[in-house]
């Protein structure tokens, strides 16, 4: 069942087109991440869903309620939508208890019990209720902001880059905890982020925006392995894009003969591999003769990143091909200057003609 349905949503600011006809469906109880570079329109789209702004044209429907039909909109406070901004926007002069219960009228029956329940939901100790926001860590502040947004039992939760100010380790832990909380509560959620890894790990559905349009929408794994075009491929992670000749389920390219999923395609095309699909075997000088027909390269750069090393490898037999990025286990990565044999794991993705 679809909870949120956007149809042909347009928005301009003077001569600038922020949204150029957005169509998007969000299933009930799912998590959707809207990701894109700065200026792609993702924040404008979130603000229109929230009711903070009106579209110039298009429709926004939540469940069976029409929220926007062009400039005619339902006000934000009547939409039943929760919103967590980037900085949490807690009231610094109020206690945690008053922040969490801000949207609950003072005469609400069992108001204090509801606040306690919300603290438990976001895994915060009730001993924090009398603290002020400045006495909390960044992760705790974000959980308080989430509890406040959950107080009125929203039909839809909007998260506007809520983890961006957190340290890397805390960011991952908080993101996972929030995802589990929203899933267990059955709340449909939309996350806006510029962080590709965050979008892929958080969501059931990822929508990639570019220049006010949706470049691709789908499951995270599908978008990562089968992007529609090179721009989307490179936005969602490092990509090795090569020209190739296609025939009967195979691609002939600078890396040799590589399997592809599309057995119907033939002729010239472009293929994509992710760096982790390239495997390196270091060769001693005396072993080069036995590898005459192999794809050989030399390591130009090596960046140690802990569990993996990111290597830049130049192909020896294809001087005109740009150096390749390869991810190799960090403790056993070949050194700079090493000669390596390059093999490919899995299938290459073939871009559609004209992509």
Automatic annotation (TrEMBL):
The keyword Nucleotide-binding applies. Residues 4-236 form the ABC transporter domain. One of its GO terms (molecular function) is ATP binding. Keywords: ATP-binding, Cell membrane, Ion transport, Iron, Iron transport, Membrane, Nucleotide-binding, Transport. CDD domains: ABC_Carb_Solutes_like. It comes from the Bacteria. InterPro entries: AAA+_ATPase, ABC_SmlMolc_Importer, ABC_transporter-like_ATP-bd, ABC_transporter-like_CS, ABC_transpr_FbpC, Mo/tungstate-bd_C_term_dom, P-loop_NTPase, Transp-assoc_OB_typ2. PANTHER family: SPERMIDINE/PUTRESCINE IMPORT ATP-BINDING PROTEIN POTA, SPERMIDINE_PUTRESCINE IMPORT ATP-BINDING PROTEIN POTA. This is Iron(III) transport system ATP-binding protein. It comes from Rhodoferax saidenbachensis.
